[in-house]
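User
New here, help please:
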Amino acid sequence: MACNCMAATTASTMRWPSQAASAGSRPAISVATIRPMDSAREVVQTRCMARKACCMNEMKRLKTGIRLKTLQTGRTPLRGGHHTTTGSLKNRKLIMKDTYNLQRFVDAQQPLFQQVLTELEAGQKRSHWMWFVFPQIQGLGRSDTARHYAVTDLDEARAYLQHPVLGPRLEQCAGIIAPQVERSARQIFSSPDDMKLHSSMTLFSIAAPERPVFQKVLDTFFGGERDAMTVNLLSR
């Protein structure tokens, strides 16, 4: 039916030159001017453009959905249906790029950190962990253990605080003892670990003044004063 209609339409619109001249109508349309291949090409191009626009809209919709999902959950979808927490990649990079060998602190703390928290909450240090829980600046300790866990400079101290495990743990420990105003540092840590606490909190309060918990420990146990030897070593 469609073919017959098209044939009829073509027949009605096409006239031979002699017929057109006799009829006195518009100039005749030459058969040579009808190019069905061009029309077919235009149809194909139109369809391709429509498909391309549809694909682009679908990609935009998917990207918008991914962004919304990331904002809602804090996780970015990866290939294969897996997800990654937004902050975990940054933490992984910090761990992989361990310029200062901070892993030595993680390894030392791992077996007994829960015990450290228990002792601090009880207000009485009983076991040996001061070197790697409250690190000091290099140059204060003389033993092999003290030198092994010494922090070389402010850059290492800041890297320590930015570490995804060590930084939060140090703030947690400092936060436990800061409110214990009824006891002295010597009563909690004994000597000379009370002096190690003084030097450690001085180091990290200077390295990160925007983290107030270290200064709070100095306020509670040392009248807000910094350890002079630590300040001197940092100024060299």
User: Anything to note?
Assistant: DSSP finds 14 helices and two strands in the chain.
